[in-house]
Amino acid sequence: MSANKKIVILGGGESGVGSAILAQAKGFDVFLSDNGSLKQKYKEELQQHHISYEENGHTESRILKASEIIKSPGIPNEIHLIQKAISKGIAIISEIEFAGRYTSAKKICITGSNGKTTTTSLIYHILRSAGLNVGLGGNIGRSFARQVAEENYDYYVLELSSFQLENMYKFKADIAILLNITPDHLDRYDHDMQKYINAKMRIIQNQPEEDAFIYWNDDPIIAKEIKKYDIKSQQYKFAENKGEYIAAYSDNNQIIINTPKALFNMEQDLLALTGTHNLYNSLASGITAKLIDISNDDLRRSLSDFQGVEHRLEKVAKVRGIQFVNDSKATNVNSCWYALQSMKTKVVLILGGTDKGNDYTEIEELVKQKAHALVFLGVDNSKLHKFFDGKVAIIEDADSMEEAVKKSYKLANEGDTVLLSPCCASFDLFKSYEDRGTQFKQCVRKL
Fold first, then answer.
1. Contact 397/406 with Cβ under 8 angstroms?
2. Alpha carbon 388 to chain centroid distance?
3. What is the pLDDT of residue 1?
4. What is the pLDDT of residue 3?
5. β-pair partners for 259
6. How far is CA 226 from CA 107, 112, 230, in A?
7. 415 and 341 inside one domain
8. Low-confidence residues of the chain, pLDDT below 50?
9. Could you tell me the pTM of the whole model?
10. Do 291 and 427 fall within a single domain?
11. In terms of domains, do 274 and 415 share one?
12. 349 and 271 in one domain?
């Protein structure tokens, strides 16, 4: 059947090319189409696999002959081509949905507005360090589909964004982790928070009783939403403090993880990751580890030697007593809130980029308490000025990373922290948040 079934891949990044490789391996007639230009490495890969593709535009007539369309997560469902395909009865699915059909590996899936990359990376580190045969994918690293095509793992640890969750229907997580839900990507969801929440809650779909659902007990949105669902999977809650039915928490400078299979404790000071938000990430990771029988010694070692994630509260350098911290991955307001909350010094804060429908009220008090100067780095800083002008004594603008770093350095006093935690997407001045963070580090090291 697959030999006659036409699969069209929309989007030629890592997700799309991985999907194309898997679809071809499973005997489908594959065509990849990208509205923009493909990276050279992906073109070469498609050519090596003899996969038909186009770039810089979509041939609608060819695309609409598909039996099924695998859509890259960055493409909204609302675009004309997708809507036309839906009207013709063509199924639109995600790479994760497609790849999930072809593996029997256990899938540990992590979502949340903040902390998902760190938690995904930490869980992967724990499992890999314990000697398990495990792959890392989803919104991080090599695509899940590519690995299903080319590898044979027993476990996958998958970071899933709301965009990836949108077009998943029969896929299920063996362990689903929901860290938090705060406003993000509202430009994608018609500025309707409920639509974004609904996408996040798809992490628990299709889970039977033998599966696990791990979530933050104190998140008000999660607490409200779970009442709407008939959740069959086993629920494991984590929280900062001990409470009824809490599986993981901190108490008297110890972290405690209590599951039906095991009891684990460890000194909180020995955790590699610091700050309240990272405590939650460590607790969620610890529950996961104990549910799959990672030994206490292996878990303790991994929680204490994890190196962290690049561009997430990454200490870059100390220059004349001023600490520079790269938190370029903070592309929403709540991420910046966590970063500011973890600061023990006065701050010069670099904000700005492509606004995603942000409400800066959430960080207003922390900014007033901790930041004595702001530097706005973006093409259009008008919304930031409208909100923050008059609330912080010194506010300056920069239209390049070099200018932002130099101005921040001049504004900072010895003992301060210069914090890049932009609250915004990066696409006005940079290729990605990684590019933004890398440029920040390069400019700091030139001081």
1. no
2. 27
3. 44
4. 54
5. 262
6. 21, 15, 8
7. yes
8. 1
9. 0.84
10. no
11. no
12. no
Please check whether residues 232 and 322 belong to one and the same domain: no
User: 394 and 298 share a domain?
Assistant: no
* C-alpha separations of 433 from 83, 101, 211, 232 in Å: 30, 32, 34, 37
Please list, in sequence order, all residues whose beta carbon lies within 8 angstroms of the beta carbon of residue 290, skipping any fewer than 6 positions away: 257, 259, 261, 262, 264, 299
Angle made by CA atoms 294, 296, 302, in degrees to the nearest 5? 75
Among candidates 61, 54, 60, 64, which has minimal Cα distance to 34? Answer: 54
- Structural domain harbouring 229: 99-305
Q: Which of 250, 279, 305 is the last residue of a domain?
A: 305
Residue 237 pLDDT: 98
User: In this predicted model, what pLDDT tens digit does every residue of 182-206 receive, in sequence order?
Assistant: 877 677 777 889 999 999 999 999 9
What 3 state SS string does the chain have?
A: CHHHCEEEEECCCHHHHHHHHHHHHCCCEEEEECCCCCCHHHHHHHHHCCCEEECCCCCHHHHCCCCEEEECCCCCCCCHHHHHHHHCCCEEECHHHHHHCCCCCEEEEEECCCCHHHHHHHHHHHHHHCCCCEEEEECCCCCHHHHHHHCCCCEEEEECCHHHHHCCCCCCCCEEEECCCCCCCCCCCCCCHHHHHHHHHHHHCCCCCCCEEEEECCCHHHHHHHHHCCCCCEEEEECCCCCCCEEEEEECCEEEEEECCEEEEEEHHHCCCCCHHHHHHHHHHHHHHHHCCCCHHHHHHHHHHCCCCCCCCEEEEEECCEEEEECCCCCCHHHHHHHHHHCCCCEEEEECCECCCCCCHHHHHHHHHHEEEEEEECCCCHHHHHHHECCECEEEEECCHHHHHHHHHHHCCCCCEEEECCCCECCCCCCCHHHHHHHHHHHHHCC
Q: Exposed, middle or buried, 56 (CB in 10 Å: 0-12/13-18/19+)?
A: exposed
Give the chain's domain count. Answer: 3
In this structure, what token pair is assigned to residue 353?
A: 């980029």
C-alpha 441, offset from chain centre: 21
Q: According to the model, what pLDDT value does residue 2 have?
A: 57
Is there a single domain that holds both residue 171 and residue 265? yes
What CATH number is attached to the domain comprising 87? 3.40.50.720
Tokens 């996040």 locate to 200
Q: What number of other Cβ atoms are within 10 A of residue 184's Cβ?
A: 24
Using CA atoms, how far residue 53 sits from 16, 57, 62, 106, 288, in Å, is 11, 11, 11, 32, 40
Mark whether 182 and 103 lie in a shared domain.
Answer: yes
Pairing of strands 262-267, 254-259: antiparallel
